[in-house]
Amino acid sequence: GAVVSQHPSWVICKSGTSVKIECRSLDFQATTMFWYRQFPKQSLMLMATSNEGSKATYEQGVEKDKFLINHASLTLSTLTVTSAHPEDSSFYICSAFKQVSNNSPLHFGNGTRLTVT
Amino acid sequence: GQSLEQPSEVTAVEGAIVQINCTYQTSGFYGLSWYQQHDGGAPTFLSYNALDGLEETGRFSSFLSRSDSYGYLLLQELQMKDSASYFCAVKRGGNKLTFGTGTQLKVEL
Q1: Residue B81 CB partners (closer than 8 Å, separation 6+)
Q2: Can you tell me the distance from the alpha carbon of B53 to that of B39, in angstroms, rounded to the nearest whole number?
Q3: Which of A43, A57, A103 lies at the smallest CB-CB distance from B102?
Q4: Which residue of A has its CA nearest to B39?
């Protein structure tokens, strides 16, 4: 069954509004979660690392004030896209490792398809 | 910077064997993973190589040569359901994964 749950699976919003996406680890605690963005027919780009109880670390070129990340508990991380614009329309996917070992897989949520009109 | 190159598209017939290559150039390397993604879906883990050599998991095998910064995914006995995008990914420090450009595999009858 699913290891990481993401909600909502899709959202349509108007330009200038904010959208919050939730990511939950199921039956395990995730001190770290990773947020990716994927444009159609393209690769997954790491946006930021969400750290429980501390600030997220953002990849180069990702605006931290636009993509607010909160990791308030060991099972929940949220990504808020603030003042969304059409160019923010994309597929956002969260992920986490259930176990911390070299060969353990990264488990992904089912993703959120954001469309900004 | 980080760079992982894959062929953009590969087409093969059902029952055949196909190899998807990945060459990488990254700062930091702990291992190479492969993920499968069907259209509109989440990526799912296929395999992981930390050391040189071949890892076999059922119909899928993955190979790594660290000295050549190269790896490949081998899919045998192709099935229609294998039609998907395949991504290699390098594990870097902080458990971060950097994904390759992706290869769309089309399996035909």
Answers
A1: none
A2: 30
A3: A43
A4: A41
